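Sharing a chain and its predicted structure for anyone who wants a worked example. Both blocks are below, sequence first, tokens second.
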Amino acid sequence: MALLHNSDDSVFYLRFPRTDADALLAVGVEDAYVVADGAQIQWEELKDWMAASKDWLFGWIGYDARLSLHRFAEECLVASAMPALMLVKPKHVARITREGYEMVKGEWKEEWNHWLTADSTDEAILRHNEGIELKPGISASEYNRHAKDLMHQIQLGNVYEANYCIDFQSTQRLENPVMTWKKMNALTQAPFAGYAQYGAYHVLSASPERYLKREGNRVISQPIKGTSRRGSSTEEDEQLKVSLAHSKKERAENVMIVDLVRNDLSRCAVRGSVRVDELYGLYTFPTVHHLISTVSCDVDETCTWVDLIQATFPMGSMTGAPKISAMNWIDKHERLSRGIYSGALGYIEPGGNFDFNVVIRSLQYNSEVPVITSNVGGAITSLSDVESEYDECLLKSSAVLRALR
């Protein structure tokens, strides 16, 4: 753990669904709990720190926080520099609405005014061009070979579904990360979009997926499994929606992860309260259609954010099933540590309510190195066509990569 004090080098802008605001903005650092990548997270210490803060917290938990939760046969060879876990108690918190802003904590500064129009689709934002081309870490033929091996493991019964991911990377400097995120946001209009910066670390996320939300004693998770491109005409678009909704493969992917999420939540849930509120919900976004399910449960007052993380992380939509077996097989094929990708970004309110997304459709940027990384993946099942799976990866990454060009 590292604690930082009296620093303003932190910004979070989270455009998550809320009844009282369009987005939350948090700036500055009063205190922080940071765990370096590869270090073990001391969960009881973290729980005590959070209980003592009694304040707003913003931050992320990276994919490799899993190493503090589970034992693995093999780990990724190339580590990420992104902190495995980082929670900030900010100096200033504002609710942003169409009418302006309302301070929850601290005071507003004029240099933050550009966040009031962060959701703009103005041509100046869409014309922003960093001129950066991210290169894939592996070729299509390598992807196919790895995906076929995972399908072989599925046929042997070693795993049922594996969320296999590939990386894109560049060592160019990102001159304006905030403007790049605003362009990404305009292109995707994702419901769980967020920008986070902590020192040299930047996370630009256009996520459509919610990991966990707590409101009172109710907790919900909304895994995405099932993806289709948008059509070039209204008629084709409707045909693609119908095809996705009735796809045997996509529905099998979705229900396997729903079962996994139900099992994870049951570890903290009030007995008999786990339920599937929506199965195979069909949702449309500017570049894709998705199948999204909603699973919920009730928890008692003693259940904390740390308890729920320990019970459910990493989220099943980014691992596969069974979870531990899937991650072990994934580790044998992926090239890099995922960093914050497949992790979660969000906030915790003073009373214990929270909302965290799944960090997908994202860029990770380390301005010290510099290096820009974007990961993308999809579920491999016994019904997968590896060429189609690779095309799906390119489809999912298209808007994120376009934000750099």
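Comments welcome. The two ends are 37 Å apart (CA to CA).
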